[in-house]
């Protein structure tokens, strides 16, 4: 079965169908666009015998023993063959129901065993000249069927028939198993092995591992990080401030931001926050007394540096956008919003819960 692309469709239009009004999902949507485009480019240029293995990190997805993966192989004469994990390889509690299987078929996959050699996996066969459509199908499968929240939670490996690695370039924000390229404080490339060597292992306290990751992202040293009296690491994001806090019991890293302070907690505000939270790919928004907070938790047990990196990247972008949007609608004070007018508190009470302002 081949995945056809309607004439004139771009990789973005084939892949995406969310309404453009879903502002909080825009960054994730763009990340999937970039991933689909990069995957299409890679598929169209790989030689015969090459294979790409894409896997959703179980730690990120919270699926435990369930491993969701897609493998794409380049056959002779420019034929692409893809296999996607089916129910036979999944624990009982994570198996797809009939409706989900139907969605897989609607995306272009043949049911397990239909494509020659597919055995227990869903199969798809197409051509390298149609790599854009194939990439869109695979991206939607990973995102919509397997539940990958962001391409950064994908790991990939490109290899030949002898399982020898092939240099094939990056796949947007997906992680190459052999080494994630980061930039260190000195501007030099830092592989994931070098970073994780510093932050891995239970013998290294969680707060030290977190500070190493944040310092690496900020291109600075641990000693130069902005840390307040509570031990929270501060990161400025435009008119917003993002904090990273390490909790011991249970082990957790909270990436959070006081979006607005001195705001009146009305029913309209609660409805808005609920709607926005439902659109967020990860994290939540809530109001505690007169402060609107955004929070993205990262598990401290089996800590993964890339999960913290993604949480910080998402939060810094969203906080700087959300404080402006919500301030325009509900008033209050932004963290770095000079001249902001606070909403008059109810009953003349001037109590403030913006503990960082």
Strand numbers in spatial order across the main sheet: 4-3-2-1-5-6
| End-to-end CA span | 59 Å
Helical content class:
25-40%
What shape does the CA trace take?
elongated
Weakly predicted, low-confidence segments? 1-24, 178-190, 342-357
Total DSSP E strands? 14
Please give the largest β-sheet.
Answer: 6 strands, mixed
Proportion of residues in β-strands: 15-25%
In angstroms, what is the radius of gyration?
23 Å
Overview of the molecule:
Helices cover 32% and strands 21% of the residues. It is built from nine helices and 14 strands. Strands 4-3-2-1-5-6 form a six-stranded mixed β-sheet. A six-stranded antiparallel β-sheet has the order 9-10-11-12-14-13. A two-stranded antiparallel ribbon has the order 7-8. Helix 2 packs across helix 5 (131-145). It is elongated and about 65 Å long.
Kindly summarize this structure in a few lines.
With 357 residues, the protein is α+β, with helices and mostly antiparallel strands. It has nine helices and 14 strands.
List the helices and strands and how they pair.
Blueprint: H1 11-15, H2 26-45, E1 51-56, H3 58-61, E2 69-75, E3 79-84, H4 98-107, E4 122-127, H5 131-145, E5 154-159, E6 175-176, E7 182-183, E8 189-190, H6 192-199, H7 206-217, E9 226-227, E10 233-237, E11 240-247, E12 252-260, H8 267-279, E13 284-288, E14 291-299, H9 305-330
Parallel strand pairs: 5-6
Antiparallel strand pairs: 1-2, 1-5, 2-3, 3-4, 7-8, 9-10, 10-11, 11-12, 12-14, 13-14
Helix pairs in contact: 2-5, 4-5
Protein name: YbjN domain-containing protein
Region (Disordered): 1-20, 333-357
Pfam families: TY-Chap1, TY-Chap3
């Amino acid at each position: 079965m081949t995945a056809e692309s309607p004439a004139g469709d771009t990789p973005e239009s084939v892949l995406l169908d969310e309404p453009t009004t879903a502002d909080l999902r825009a960054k994730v949507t763009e990340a999937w666009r970039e991933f689909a485009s990069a995957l299409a480019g890679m598929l169209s240029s790989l030689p015969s015998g090459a294979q790409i293995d894409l896997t959703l990190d179980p730690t990120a997805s919270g699926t435990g023993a369930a491993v969701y993966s897609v493998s794409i192989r380049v056959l002779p004469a420019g034929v692409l063959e893809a296999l996607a994990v089916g129910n036979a390889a999944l624990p009982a509690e994570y198996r797809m129901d009939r409706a989900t299987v139907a969605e897989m078929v609607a995306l272009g996959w043949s049911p397990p065993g239909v494509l020659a050699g597919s055995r227990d996996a869903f199969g798809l066969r197409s051509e390298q000249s149609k790599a854009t459509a194939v990439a869109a199908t695979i991206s939607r499968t990973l995102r919509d069927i397997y539940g990958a929240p962001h391409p950064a939670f994908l790991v990939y490996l490109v290899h030949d028939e002898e399982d020898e690695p092939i240099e094939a370039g990056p796949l947007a924000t997906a992680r190459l198993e052999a080494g994630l390229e980061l930039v260190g404080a000195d501007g030099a490339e830092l592989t994931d092995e070098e970073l994780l060597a510093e932050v891995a292992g239970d013998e290294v306290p969680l707060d030290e591992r977190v500070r190493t990751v944040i310092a690496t992202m900020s291109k600075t040293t641990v000693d130069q990080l902005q840390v307040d009296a509570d031990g929270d690491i501060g990161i400025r994001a435009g008119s917003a401030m993002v904090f990273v806090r390490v909790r011991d019991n249970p082990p957790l890293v909270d990436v959070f931001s006081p979006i607005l302070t001195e705001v009146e907690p009305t029913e309209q505000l609660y409805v808005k926050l609920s709607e926005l939270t439902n659109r967020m790919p990860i994290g939540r928004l809530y109001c505690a007394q007169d402060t609107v907070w955004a929070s993205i938790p990262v598990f401290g047990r089996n800590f993964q540096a890339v999960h913290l990196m993604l949480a910080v990247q998402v939060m810094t972008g969203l906080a700087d956008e959300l404080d402006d949007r919500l301030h325009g609608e509900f008033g209050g004070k932004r963290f770095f919003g000079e001249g902001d007018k606070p909403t008059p508190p109810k009953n003349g009470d001037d109590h403030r819960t913006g503990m960082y302002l």
